Amino acid sequence: MYSVTQRIRNIKQPRGGYIMPRNFNAKDFGAIPPNDMHVETIHASLVGLAVDYLARFMLGADVKSAFQISTIGAWAMDNFDKSMCHCANAHKLCEQIKGLDDVSIIAACKLVGYDSAFRAGPIAYRPVENIQPDRATCENIREMVKSSLEFFRVYGPVTRERIVFPGGYTETVSSGDGDFMTADTIWDFKCSVRPPQSKDTLQIVMYWLMGLHSICSAEFEKVTKFGFFNPRLAKIYTLNVANVSPETLHEIEVQVIGYSVDDALF
């Protein structure tokens, strides 16, 4: 059994991808961060997680809810490595997160280092004390969070976040969670230096299809667009659901996610 992202890595898509990225409409939004990502002193994946979770926190979630995956990862590390007090350290980092000041951002960057223990297992964990964002990195993160908050002001409100799909998983794809939904769009946040790739477009369509198969299907039936927001590139990318052929959706349902032909919706 795979997560959504693992499943995508283990299949071969048609030439150009099931859902071609070039079919998405691109639109400028917000400001490009003041410093090039190559000056950042921590891995881009940590930057992306920090932006995502800090945006959730600034939108009103309590810090432990916004950084839920991180705190679960710390708990997993405590069970794996009894010589360290990872949960206590995660709690201390949570207490330092108050807003978008440098102290909060540095604590957030360290805290998201625990995500790997949850997403890939404790063996993937690397000591969070080695995560040291400098001033330029903090400034980039701060500006990307601000851009994210403006995005939600314009395109919100958020109707669902950290989306899971009870009843929609299969024996092939047994886990995976989406980022956000608004009234008519399912959104994925990317802080990549590249526009959406075929693996990204397939991922967001898989989330939508799994939502339609889940116990929350009524909410996903209202979705008319797929969307990506990239605060690093200051871009929004959208595609109307109606522009994806039923034949493509059927193939993704059956061949990629693993629904039976009888259970397929397309």
Sum up the structure in keywords.
alpha/beta, 2 domains, 6-stranded mixed beta sheet, two-stranded parallel ribbon
Global outline: globular
Into which percent range does the helicity of residues fall?
Answer: 40-55%
Spatially, the strands of the biggest sheet line up as 2-8-7-6-5-3
Mean pLDDT: 96
| End-to-end gap | 23 Å
Whole-number tally of structural domains: 2
Strand elements, count: 8
* Number of H/I helices: 11
Which regions have little confidence, pLDDT < 50, spanning 5+ residues? none
SSE ordering: EHEHHHHHHHEEEEHHEEH
Instruction: Give the DSSP E fraction (strand runs of 2 or more residues).
Output: 5-15%
If you compute it from the alpha carbons, what radius of gyration comes out, rounded to the nearest whole angstrom?
19 Å
Q: Tell me the major beta sheet.
A: 6 strands, mixed
Helix/strand-derived category reads alpha/beta
